[in-house]
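anyone seen this seq b4? input:
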Amino acid sequence: MRLDTTYTVSTPEGIELQLSPAGPVPRTLAWLTDLAIRGSILLFVVIIMAFMGNLGLGVSMILAFLLEWFYPVWFELRHGGQTPGKKLLQIYVAHVDASPVSPAASLVRNLLRVVDFLPLAYGFGLASTLMTRRFQRLGDLAANTVVLHRQQPPSLTRTLEDPPQRPAAALTLSEQQAIILFAQRQQLLTTERQQELAALCGPLVQQQADAAGFIRGIASWLVGHKSSGDDIKHKATALRRQR
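predicted toks r here
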């Protein structure tokens, strides 16, 4: 059973990338931000063009058309798949394999928003994002694109500050390494996600109110309290020698 929505792709250079698709909430907030920007621009122009009669009305209608259909395309192609709203929410459009979005794909996904909007307020689009593994609306499926979170390079936590906890059962070397790595990555996980992963340890965390904290405590015990800055590889070598 999948615990998250991330997926991995391999680049031609042999590098594996872990990608995190953006769900309906950040995408909706980004769309509302862009809608406010487009509306502000259009309102400003309409006020200016109101003094120009029919010519001003025609210019305003052309601008409204361009803003509605080509505003996202222009930004996605010129700014790394990000409109101002997407940049604010730290998400971006790319192909499913993480390659930059192409002009054809950007056009397709944005022109098909008229279908996603049906029957009312992006009903089809919302249903599609909730039913697909990568939160793709109909336009994304047609264009083979996905909206991803722009992740910062991770920095592992090297200091384990939880009180050491001696495990009740003997642990294998791979189990010890997994527990230490879990504790080092605590800043990259939400509290709920930590508890979810810690619960997978089964009997090791039974009757523990804070399963994640208990697992981090075992990590502190494994590496030695106050000396937890040692490299994982160094600790693993020491554990092999002890065995």
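Residues 24-49 form the longest helix (26 residues). The radius of gyration is 25 Å. kinda curious what u guys think
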